Amino acid sequence: MSEGTIRMIEKRIGILGGGQLGKMIFQAGSTMLLDISFLDKSSDYPAGLITKNFTEGDIANYDDIIAFGQNMDVISIEIERVNVEALKVLKEAGKDVFPSPEIIGLIQDKGDQKKFYKDHGFDTSPFILVDSTEDIYEGLKNGSISYPFVQKSRRGGYDGRGVAVINGQNEIHKILEGPCVIEEKVDIDKEIAVLVCRNKGGEVAIYDPVEMVFDDEANLLDYQLAPAAISRDQNINIHELALKMASKLDLVGLLAIELFLDKEGNIIVNEMAPRPHNSGHHTIEACYTGQYENLLRAILNLPLGCPDIISPSILVNLLGSPDYRGETVYSGISEIMNLRGANLHLYGKNETRPHRKMGHVTILHEEHYSPHESKDIIKRVFKTVPKILYNE
Amino acid sequence: MSEGTIRMIEKRIGILGGGQLGKMIFQAGSTMLLDISFLDKSSDYPAGLITKNFTEGDIANYDDIIAFGQNMDVISIEIERVNVEALKVLKEAGKDVFPSPEIIGLIQDKGDQKKFYKDHGFDTSPFILVDSTEDIYEGLKNGSISYPFVQKSRRGGYDGRGVAVINGQNEIHKILEGPCVIEEKVDIDKEIAVLVCRNKGGEVAIYDPVEMVFDDEANLLDYQLAPAAISRDQNINIHELALKMASKLDLVGLLAIELFLDKEGNIIVNEMAPRPHNSGHHTIEACYTGQYENLLRAILNLPLGCPDIISPSILVNLLGSPDYRGETVYSGISEIMNLRGANLHLYGKNETRPHRKMGHVTILHEEHYSPHESKDIIKRVFKTVPKILYNE
């Protein structure tokens, strides 16, 4: 990385987190000639693969963020588990911090998120906040909690962790420790995500909602369809919801909103993330302007790019094989490349773990083509093979 | 760049040349987790912006290429002005060199190129080879050369340099020194380019022909349309020509073929480049699989990606302002970003020169949209402003 490069805009952008989302932010930024640096534990992380502007440090550590942020003009995140106090101080000191520390703080606490939805008139499943497992047992006794219910840890949950679905008394061993949200279980018809981007001047770009089909056993995404197969009215209502949410939050940057459609067609807010999101990976190839580029445009207060779809797509995550942990060799790549319209993204994580996100494939498709068949092929062929076995 | 990253394929890819084509090769490769290094004069060049795997050296120098290539498994080029002898030695030593040194050698000499077209039955404008300006004067006297004619230096021409169009005796001062090709001037209706990719196993992907509209004064591309507005039959004939050319050359990698359609509809081969090409920039966003990714797939003998168009596009080069040379500040970026479907690529060249390629914009468009209007806006707003003026 040449330090002396003349940039499109002479602003230093610092991103907290250097995983795959950071890598894809950097890729979008390198096309536009932006100056982007990362803070995260190890420069072996995916973003470290494509830039040497990588500072090793802890994004949960106050001092590390202050030291990193002092050299930046604009600070953003690729993950919300960051030290918010440090971001507040940097914002006070005149740095552009997008999304705002206040939004990040709100998102970090699923209890506060739920209160925000309720206070601002967004439909969300009925809930109570409890401090301990004792409170749950008490609630079950006195009838304030009833089966089936969903328990979410207020802090630290991620990718299916920190969430328990308790269908009856026989599943009570799954209850998690600590302060949490107890929600009524929604009778889900579809899970939908919508991505909204807003710049400092208030310009908004809303991506078409996508449909996420989950593997119930692993509580992980099986595949994603874009656009979602929903009615025109639902589409409009979800766009309006996203617009209102971005406005109420005074968002600058990206916000992914995960929604349930229940069996009666109601749109129910589940949770949000104020950053690039897995549900927007397809936008790189399938939309006029991808989420990563629009994030950068937004935080630099440039005009936003068009979020419309160029081509329908299906997205499949490439997950670490369930039976292996350690150094990986990738397997099945040739078969994936053989699929028409397949865009392979490998993130560059040296260690594979069961169900770890190692990459994704976005398949662009036309009418005379079966994306579902491709999805099945990808899920069958992709494996992270133990290096020791591969070398034999 | 983490040295220890586990790659999709454990092969080191070395690219001769580190300009904007190299940068875009690297971007495609980083998504697929490939290990790509560059050789060129300065790591300040565009590819040096996104990787530290950049060796400073001269791609015309035998020793520099040998030293660089020894550490690689697969060697390719982003520009054809390289030392072919060194590549032959590396190939002999067992390295994969694609395109072959023989193809690169053929392309380096426009006289040999013309003989190849003639020998293999490709239509090309009638020509003679001459060694000096005296031969041209002699030819004009004895009638073997007549006005108007096109003179092309056999070696070293690039981007409109090394080409003179001599319409009559009053333009004879434009004649170039040295060995050259003298061609009959074609009565051009359209200038077309077609891009073909072929892997080691013989699999071929052919991109739809594009139409290049030239600015006659500067002898530079004004804009490019993809797909070209040509008949179905012309399309088929050009595909067949590309397929035959790739086969006759035993090509592995990419080949861009520039063609003339004359006023009678004949398809005439002008010249070729065995590498990623400006006429294929749009394929990054506008095709299922872009030229850069397909080059990498081809030289690694992976299945090729689908070259079909997802969306029509118009491409405009961002050229250095005609009145300025030196350190640049970019101007007009916001206006470009405001255009629906515009994809901005800035290459990262610190020094601007008159008409230097500083970047390009690919505009994806739908029916209800005027790409030509956008093209005019881009050409009006983009400027490389002298830094010294900008700071005042």
Summed up:
With 392 residues, chain A is of the alpha+beta class. The first copy, chain A, has helices at residues 20-32, 62-69, 84-92, 101-108, 110-119, 133-142, 232-248, 283-286, 291-299, 333-337, 371-381, 387-390; strands spanning 12-16, 35-40, 54-56, 74-77, 96-97, 127-130, 149-153, 163-166, 180-184, 188-198, 204-206, 210-215, 220-226, 253-262, 267-273, 313-319, 326-331, 342-346, 351-352, 357-364, 383-386. In chain A, the strands form 4 sheets. In chain A, strands 10, 11, 12, 13, 14, 15, 16, 18 and 20 form a 9-stranded antiparallel sheet that branches. Chain A has a 5-stranded parallel sheet with strand order 3-2-1-4-5, with helices on both faces. A 4-stranded antiparallel sheet of chain A has the order 6-9-7-8, with helices on both faces.
In whole angstroms, the N-to-C terminal distance of chain A is: 38 Å
| Distinct helical segment count of chain A | 12
Describe the sheet with the most strands of chain A: 9 strands, antiparallel
The beta-strand count of chain A equals 21
Give a topology summary.
The structure is a homodimer of 392-residue chains.
Chain A: E1 12-16, H1 20-32, E2 35-40, E3 54-56, H2 62-69, E4 74-77, H3 84-92, E5 96-97, H4 101-108, H5 110-119, E6 127-130, H6 133-142, E7 149-153, E8 163-166, E9 180-184, E10 188-198, E11 204-206, E12 210-215, E13 220-226, H7 232-248, E14 253-262, E15 267-273, H8 283-286, H9 291-299, E16 313-319, E17 326-331, H10 333-337, E18 342-346, E19 351-352, E20 357-364, H11 371-381, E21 383-386, H12 387-390
Parallel strand pairs in A: 1-2, 1-4, 2-3, 4-5
Antiparallel strand pairs in A: 6-9, 7-8, 7-9, 10-11, 10-12, 10-14, 12-13, 13-16, 14-15, 16-20, 17-19, 17-21, 18-20
